Amino acid sequence: MFTALNAKKSRDPELESQALDWIEANLGEPLDRKKPYDDLLKDGIILCKLMNKLIPGCIKKIDTKGGGFALMQNIERFQTAAKQWGVPANEVFQTVDLWEKKNIPQVTLCIHAMGRVAQLRPDYKGPSLGPKMAEKNERQFTEEQLLEAKNTVSLQYGSNKGANQSGLNMGKPRSILD
């Protein structure tokens, strides 16, 4: 499974391809697959267009030319819109992850998170990307199991057994000379 913890380790061409397929399907136009994945997304233009398809009008201005600062603003606009879409903040990449190619797997994780969130939105009618998020996690316990749980002491309360501080010396010992 692709998680934020292993995101910095390596890129997965299959996940990147799935992300591009999903973007193409939502935009309704083909992307230039001859360009490397990170170069294709670097200026943020495609990502901003994607967000405007998902949430019409959410990004008012998309800079198509100009210096690095103007194009980096596209990425920041995308990040804001992705959070508005419902992507958890810890799954949204930082601007340098894409612009300076510091952590491209985090960019891919963000796009996959968008696809996962999309499946829970009633207003989204596009293709799916990745596994569907669970809507419920109901559990059924018997009355006997519930009563047994009352006898369990949680480790949050600490314990008076096990390790203690006896024999522990902190700092330099006091030395008294006669």
TrEMBL record:
Gene Ontology terms for molecular function: actin filament binding
Domain Calponin-homology (CH), chain residue ranges per copy: 13-118
SMART domains: CH
InterPro entries named among the record's database cross-references: Calponin-like, Calponin_repeat, CH_dom, CH_dom_sf, SM22_calponin
Pfam families found in the cross-reference section: Calponin, CH
GO biological process: actin filament organization
Region (Disordered): 157-178
Superkingdom, natural source: Eukaryota
GO cellular component, one term: actin cytoskeleton
Gene3D superfamilies: Calponin-like domain
Family: Belongs to the calponin family.
Annotated protein name in UniProt: Transgelin
